């Protein structure tokens, strides 16, 4: 098997895949203080083209702008495709609004071929603030609001549409109390670009950078991040600092004079102007030793700067209490009821007129739903309808998959409340992040064959009350490891202890920018998934892994830079009859576990060899195995072909669109897709469930045991029956012929 993975080290270097062009990068052609920014609709969380028709609900997009920017000019470039139909009315239009102000309309067409068109809509700068709403809504023909067969989509908004912003930046006060602003503004649209600069790559310095990245992830959950890393070993050269807001980790001896006051001894935090960009700031994490950098990062993650000005010398910090397994703040507790009021603000659970209420929730990655088809939801809703609105309904979707429709009551008296219990399909859940959508559709009393406009009367409305809940009581915590599927969906088992006190990273002895960037992105993702900074993480090099070998390990790098990767992949189990039986069991597990319709899987080393022969230039490989250093621990190896391929893997692995392609024991990362494989390897169970359910699950996942049990039962029954019949043959019962002497004369 080692030869399979050695093919990676012989593969040529690859070009860095393109990254979303939503970053605001100062251009030398622009005067100081000015900026230009382009946001695609994908940056606004629109992953697919959007079909709009008369029965479509309004589509809204949040466009945030960082408070240190003033937009003077903005323009919306909208690309769309018209659909013509014999029954299509020409009076319907698609209206585009910005913060409630109409920008323009797209009219339906009654004939002609489909075609892609575009329009440019200017947005006055005085209408752009830090939080903006872009709304797309269908306006029915006021002369003919209802039409026969006229509800088909008449326009498709293409995701290559974009928003262009121009303006100027201004100085922000250097206050630690404003953190994470200006280095991170969670509501800003597009990719969050947070540059890091390090003058040392010692393990404690890397731990400090990882703690800061996880703290940023906690502050901005589920947002796309990019961590450009600049390594400037030795004395800091000011012209080498990148422009923009940056986070700098440096030892005192490497800093210019005046950056550290003479009275400062030990850990130190400060916000300074960026010498190469006067409109940007530097967050300085400094200290006399790498351990001081870690202490300063801990103070930052614990928000010890609320009363400070532009600098802080944190005192000795008390150790945080040790975490318990599976106690992440953002994970819902299995075995209890999950109330919507704890998930969303009450105001976000209401709509006025036709609209949608969305409830986001995160299940524990190891929740055990085997042998369960449904998860029960108790929905307590309140509606305001009119007597003629007797076709109103509530459509329920789980992760964009239809579940059920509820008829809404009509009344002249106004507000009505109703409680219903809905079964939601377990197969439509995802292993971690989930979204419930409640679409309130208010319709009048026209016959159902006629398609009428949704009533936007503000007197009509609905609300999902905060005491509505999901019933998680039937479910326990139990999973089989290793399982790569749990890594992108919750970071499990590395996040089982939310502070990462049981997780260790092994980076190359001299890590490159791509190694550190991938490490920071993982830490930010773990923080976003758990809701807690990874203050207990440990980092080591491949020459001395003693500080981390008893933990769940993540190894990063290439075969050249991290020789421990080669040593571990050489120890992959060989092909044997026993291992092939385990492989068959894993094949069955894919079918019996909770996720329906899994992606195509490959089984066995031969399939993996064929994949490497077919894919001549993969970016790299993910491999998860049982740890060879400690019992009941796993080791995740993230192997890149080169530094450039690690940059590309950083762009792919944390994209939710690719999560479904990561599962099994090995995932090969290629430019256009992911290929996952199951290999014969050791595994272990983590968690617990009821003895009856665990026994049933064990038999279901071991088909050989089922057949063997049936054969043994049949053999035992046959032997018992043979013994009974033999005893009866040797001792026949008393009959008339044996009792002739006792008969009367």
UniProtKB/TrEMBL annotation:
GO CC terms, sorted: plasma membrane
Subcellular location: Cell inner membrane
Any Pfam family: BcsB
Membrane topology term: Single-pass membrane protein
Gene Ontology biological process terms, A to Z: cellulose biosynthetic process; UDP-alpha-D-glucose metabolic process
Keywords annotated in UniProt: c-di-GMP, Cell inner membrane, Cell membrane, Cellulose biosynthesis, Membrane, Transmembrane, Transmembrane helix
Pathway assignment: Glycan metabolism; bacterial cellulose biosynthesis
Role played: Binds the cellulose synthase activator, bis-(3'-5') cyclic diguanylic acid (c-di-GMP).
Record-stated family: Belongs to the AcsB/BcsB family.
Quaternary structure note: Tightly associated with the cellulose synthase catalytic subunit.
Protein name: Cyclic di-GMP-binding protein
């Amino acid at each position: 098997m080692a030869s399979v993975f050695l093919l990676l080290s012989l593969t040529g270097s690859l070009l860095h895949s393109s990254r979303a062009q939503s970053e605001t990068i100062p251009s030398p052609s622009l005067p100081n203080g000015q900026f230009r920014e382009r946001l695609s609709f994908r940056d606004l969380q629109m992953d697919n083209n959007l079909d709009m028709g008369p029965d479509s609900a309004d589509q809204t997009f949040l466009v945030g702008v960082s408070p240190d920017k003033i937009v003077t000019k903005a323009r919306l470039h909208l690309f769309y495709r018209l659909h013509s139909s014999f029954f299509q009315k020409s009076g319907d239009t698609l209206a585009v609004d910005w913060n409630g102000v109409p920008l323009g309309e797209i009219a339906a067409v009654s004939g002609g071929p489909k075609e892609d068109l575009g329009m440019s809509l200017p947005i006055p700068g005085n209408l752009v603030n830090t939080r903006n709403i872009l709304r797309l809504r269908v306006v029915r023909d006021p002369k003919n609001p209802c039409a026969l067969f006229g509800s088909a989509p008449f326009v498709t908004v293409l995701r290559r549409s974009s928003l262009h912003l121009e303006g100027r930046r201004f100085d922000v006060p250097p206050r630690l109390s404003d953190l994470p602003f200006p280095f991170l503004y969670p509501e800003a649209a597009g990719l969050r670009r947070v540059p890091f600069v390090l003058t040392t790559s010692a393990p404690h310095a890397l731990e400090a950078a990882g703690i800061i990245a996880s703290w940023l992830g906690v502050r901005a959950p589920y947002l796309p991040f990019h961590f450009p890393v600049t390594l400037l070993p030795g004395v800091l050269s000011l012209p080498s600092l990148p422009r923009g807001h940056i986070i700098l980790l440096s030892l005192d001896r490497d800093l210019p004079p005046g950056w550290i006051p003479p009275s400062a001894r030990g850990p130190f935090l400060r916000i300074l102007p960026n010498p190469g960009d006067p409109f940007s700031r530097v967050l300085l994490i400094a200290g006399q030793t790498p351990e001081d950098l870690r202490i300063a990062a801990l103070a930052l993650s614990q928000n010890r700067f609320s009363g400070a000005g532009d600098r802080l010398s944190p005192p000795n910090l008390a150790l945080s209490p040790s975490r318990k397994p599976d106690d992440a703040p953002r994970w819902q507790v299995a075995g209890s009821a999950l109330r919507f009021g704890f998930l969303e603000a009450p105001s976000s659970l209401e709509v006025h007129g036709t609209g949608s209420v969305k409830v986001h929730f995160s299940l524990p990655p190891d929740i055990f739903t085997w042998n369960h088809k449904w998860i029960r939801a108790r929905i307590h809703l309140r509606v305001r309808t009119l007597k003629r609105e007797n076709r109103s309904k509530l459509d329920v979707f789980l992760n964009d998959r239809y579940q059920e429709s509820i008829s809404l009551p009509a009344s002249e008296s106004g507000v009505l409340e109703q409680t219903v219990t809905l079964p939601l399909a377990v197969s439509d859940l995802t292993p971690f992040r989930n979204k419930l959508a409640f679409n309130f559709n208010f319709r009048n009393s026209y016959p159902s064959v006629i398609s009428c406009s949704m009533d936007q009367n503000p007197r009509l409305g609905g609300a999902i009350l905060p005491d509505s809940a999901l019933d998680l009581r039937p479910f326990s915590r139990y999973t089989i490891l290793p399982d790569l599927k749990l890594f992108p969906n919750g970071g499990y088992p590395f996040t089982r202890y939310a502070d990462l006190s049981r997780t260790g990273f092994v980076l190359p002895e001299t890590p490159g920018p791509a190694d550190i960037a991938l490490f920071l992105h993982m830490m930010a993702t773990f923080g976003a998934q758990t809701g807690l900074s990874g203050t207990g993480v440990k980092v080591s090099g491949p020459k001395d892994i003693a500080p981390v070998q008893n933990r769940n390990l993540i190894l990063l790098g290439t075969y050249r830079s991290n020789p421990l990767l080669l040593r571990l992949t050489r120890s992959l189990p060989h092909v044997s009859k026993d291992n092939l039986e385990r492989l068959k069991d894993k094949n069955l597990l894919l079918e019996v576990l909770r996720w329906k319709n899994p992606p195509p899987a490959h089984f066995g080393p031969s399939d993996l060899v064929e994949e490497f022969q077919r894919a001549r230039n993969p970016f790299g490989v993910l491999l998860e195995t049982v740890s060879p250093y400690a019992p009941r621990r796993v080791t995740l190896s993230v192997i890149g072909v080169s530094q450039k391929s690690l940059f590309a893997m950083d762009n792919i692995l944390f994209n939710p669109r690719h999560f479904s392609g990561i599962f099994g024991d090995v995932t090969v990362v290629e430019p256009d897709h992911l290929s996952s494989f199951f290999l014969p390897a050791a595994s272990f169970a983590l968690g617990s469930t009821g003895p009856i359910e665990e026994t049933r699950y064990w038999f279901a996942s071991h088909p050989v045991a089922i057949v063997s049990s049936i054969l043994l039962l049949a053999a035992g029954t046959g032997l018992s029956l043979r013994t009974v019949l033999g005893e009866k043959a040797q001792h026949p019962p008393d009959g008339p012929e044996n009792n002739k002497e006792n008969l009367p004369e």
